[in-house]
Structure formats: structure tokens, C-alpha cells
Amino acid sequence: MKVKVLGIAQDGGVPHLGCRKSCCEGARKDPARRSRVSSVALCHVATGKRWIVDCTPDFPAQVDLLESDPKLPRREPREFCDGLLLTHAHIGHYAGLIHLGTEVMSAKEMPVWATARMGEFLTRNGPWGALVSSRQIALRALEPGKPVALAEGLSVTPFLVPHRDEYSDTVGFRIEGPRRRLVFLPDVDKWEKMATPLPALLEDAQVALLDGTFFSLEELPHRDITKVRHPLVTETLDLLRGRVAAGTLEVAFIHLNHTNPALDAASPERRRLEDAGFRVAREGEDFGL
After folding, report:
1. Backbone phi, psi, residue 251, to 5°
2. Residue 15, preceding bond cis, omega within 30 degrees?
3. Total of domains in the chain
4. Among 11, 78, 174, 212, which residue has the least CB neighbours within 10 Å?
5. What is the three-class DSSP state of 274?
6. Which among 202, 282, 270 is positioned nearest to 32, based on CA atoms?
7. Which domain holds residue 150?
């Protein structure tokens, strides 16, 4: 069993619409520098079953990436996954659902796990409500703290985190396999706002894929970054440095904004976090469970 990384960028991806800085101009010229929006797949390799966490604007390309995995059996085109799990209602995390509608795939009862508030948002607002009423998606309840058994030896437990929550609440996921536990947490306001402190949340986890949206406060000079509400990478390093140094926790950052210099493998910021034992997740990589 494994978790496969399908994307590592913030909701707008890389290159980012409207950005003419070198971070995005370089990505327009060089496909190797592009990054899809943050998402992972949970894979039960023995049976070929797979579930995708978050349904991003890059959803079709991410399904292609998943289907190209030589360790997973090919599926019928309309059976590319066994369901979706959603973290919250910001566009990078659910907008890809449009591809399940009549205009594209016209899916049939694709299981979609969501909290009650997220499910209500989808049901009451178009065009998402049409997916529900036409049974192109089948909503299934996520209850914070209650495990969802996806397959024998593979379960997912959602937990609430603070993150603006204009349209829905926000969850992260504790993913548990036979050998290891992995925490997937792409979006949070600030670690100090968590009901459970981050070190305690990760106490019995071996791997964490964490919100790495911004490295510094200077990345968005035209906006008040204090209102964007994400922890800085440097703050996470300070909180988890001891466990990472001890070798009991592997931390990889995801959901990086296009302005984040750590996206550049040659940057001083990337070297700084790697020197501390942390790293940036790589699209297509696997974390065994």
C-alpha cells in the first residue's frame, strides 16, 4: 500500500495565471519546472484499488499520472479510481469535480467523501448540485475523528483544522496502512491555532505531507500576506526539527505557492530545509504504508 503524490503546488499551480516573474516564466518555457496542484492518491497495490484525495483543476492530468504507474493494473477508462476524498471548498481542492459532469465524463455514482458542511455546499450550489442530483457523484459522510475503512489494512481518519472556512470546514487526513501512518495536511491557517499542537498530532505518524505554501513574508508584496493565513515553512522547521533530526519522522512539504523559492531545487531556501532534514515532495513519488 502506498500514497502517490499527484501534485505539490498551491491552488493556482505553476505556472500561475498572471505571474510574469521568473518562477512562472521559467515554467512556461520548461515543462520540467511546472507543478500540478496539491493532491495524492491512496493505492492498494495488491487489488489495484485507488482513491484520490482532493479533486484539483489538474484532475485529468493527475489521473493520467496515476494510470501511468507500472505497479498498478490498468483500469477501464470509466473506472479510473474508487472514490474521492475532499479536504475543503477552496478551488484547488474540489474544482476538478467539473470533469465528472455531463459535459465531460458523466460519471456514474462516483463516491465522494466529504464532511457534512462540505457535502451541503456541493448539494446547494451549482454546478456541483447537478452532480449530486444526477447521481454522477455519490456523497459519503466524513466525520472528524471517525476512521473510514477503504480496504483491508487501509483506513483514513479526518481531523478538523482551522482554515478560513467560508464555505465549508477543513480537514486533514491521517492515513494508516499495515506498516506506517502518514498525515496529509495541505491547508491550515497557523499551527498555533490547531486544537491539537502539530507535534502531538504527528506523535504516532512516520510521514507527514504538510502545508508549505510560503517560505517567507516577502513573497506577495502586493497583498497582505497575514490575511492569506498559512504557516511559513520556517515555522514548521522550528516545530519539528527535533523529530526529523532523530529520524522518527519524515516531513515533505506540499501546496507550495508559485512564489515559494523552495520550488527551485538550486535555491538557498531549498538547501536550508534539506540541510535540516526536510524536503519538498516530488510529483509521482510514492510513500509506502
Report:
1. -120, 125
2. yes
3. 1
4. 78
5. helix
6. 282
7. 2-288
